[in-house]
Amino acid sequence: MSNKELTSYEGACCANCQTPLEGEYCHHCGQSVHSVLRPVHGLFEEFFETFLHIDGRILHTLPPLFRKPGFLTLEYFSGRRVRYIAPFRLMFVLCLLSFFVLHLATDVITHRIEERHRSAALVVTNDDFAQAQTAPEVSAVLSKRLAALEATRSVGNAAIVAQIDKAEQQLRDQANDRLTELGAPAKASTVVAAAPPPHAEQPDKPINPVHISWLPAFANERLTEFLEHARRNLKAFDYTNHHGTVAERQEAIDHLVAGFYGVLPGTMLVLVPVFALLLTLFYIFKRRLYMEHLIVSLHSHAFIFLSLLLIVLVGILSTWLKPYSSFAGHAVSMLQLPLFLWIPAYLLIMQKRVYRQGWAMTVVKFWFIGWFYFWLLVLFLLVAAALGIVH
Fold it and tell me: If you ran DSSP here, which 8-state letter would residue 14 be given?
């Protein structure tokens, strides 16, 4: 027997409500018999005990959540809840984890795209001036390419700056060669000097202030500010615009990504009760409480977020393995397809087990619910993207 089982609380009363105690916790108000005034080592013991308890619940929750469609929901309906993590906490934690990892993966992808465009600006081919038929056209092509190189120069890397200088000289030489072919005596340097410098564009005019008569002044000012942010971010994000620096473009990308992922968890939390409402409408004759549909929605989204987390982690692992072993990297990446396919299959089986209807009716309702939910998801993602752009 443990010390807890040997302890007798006969005659003891709760310090909070004076109710006679029958165990470590008062059955009337729930207060613990243990005092918070204890040595520091007692706090560490309590922390590790709580951590191990939560860890045990994770081991009992995550495997059946991923492998057994509807199991956790049916267990919750049956009243067996202590060994598992509560549905909302489970969904919320997995939501944050999945979007955190996806955010990291997105940062890696955007930086790689930027590196690819930066490398492309340094590549000089013999076809750069082939389409130019006059000296002004040669000047325009050369100015555009030099502007792109100048924007890349802002990274401050000595090796890249040396490559930029080499590419710039190659471009000028090719421009001179093309001018010679066209019979134009002017040198490329003279042509470029006559052309407007890359940063000599007219400054951007601020957008016209938004004025909606039925909105208060502060709302119109806020909308104007949002539109101005959107215009600047979209212009800096445009890779065909060579007049912005790499730092400006990267800042715009960071604003977009940070704004998008900043509102995405909240957006998904709104979809959980909306999905439960869809279940309520399609299973109205089952006479189930809305809270039951909400539990189904919470466990469904928790599974989706867990699957998304696994898919992203598999992608990251595949990307990390490919430089060392191409075969291993591609083999790992092939795991993403069954993970994707398991999501609709899991949700269909879960819907069948929880609501206990025939396969034909379940498939029809699953299709309609999925169709409505898909367009709601697209709408919410577009809103999240718009908020990210105006960030």
Answer: -
Q: Percent of the chain scored above 70 by pLDDT?
A: 63
Contacts of 159 (CB under 8 A, 6+ apart): none
How is residue 20 annotated by DSSP? Answer: B
- Specify the residue for token string 């890249």: 160
| Residue 21 vs residues 1, 2, 6, 9, 285: alpha-carbon distances, Å | 20, 19, 15, 6, 46
Whose CA is closest to 349, among 284, 208, 341, 39?
A: 341
Q: Are 242 and 148 in contact (CB under 8 A)?
A: yes
**Residue 341 CA neighbour count, 13 Å, CB half:** 5
Tokens coding 320: 């990390």
- Give SS3 for 25: strand
pTM (two decimals): 0.67
Q: Take residue 177 and report the two structure tokens written for it.
A: 């060669």
Cα 18 to the chain's mean position, in Å?
51
Q: What is the pLDDT of residues 272-329, one digit of tens each?
A: 999 999 999 999 988 889 999 999 999 999 999 999 999 999 988 888 888 888 888 8
Q: Which residues pair with 20 in a beta bridge?
A: 13
Count CA within 13 A, CB hemisphere, residue 346. 24
Tokens of 173: 């030489």
Which is nearest to 278 in space by CA: 193, 359, 371?
A: 371
Amino acid letter at 271? Answer: L
**Backbone torsion region of residue 125, taken as left when φ is above 0, otherwise alpha when ψ lies between -120 and 50, otherwise beta:** beta
H or E element at residue 184? none
Tokens representing 16 are: 């909070």
Domain coordinates of the chain in residue numbers?
1-46, 87-107+245-389, 124-198
H helices present in the chain, as ranges: 3-6, 40-67, 71-77, 87-122, 135-152, 158-181, 188-194, 217-237, 246-282, 290-321, 326-333, 336-355, 359-389
Identity at 150, one-letter amino acid code: E
Residue 84 in contact with residue 76, Cβ under 8 Å?
yes
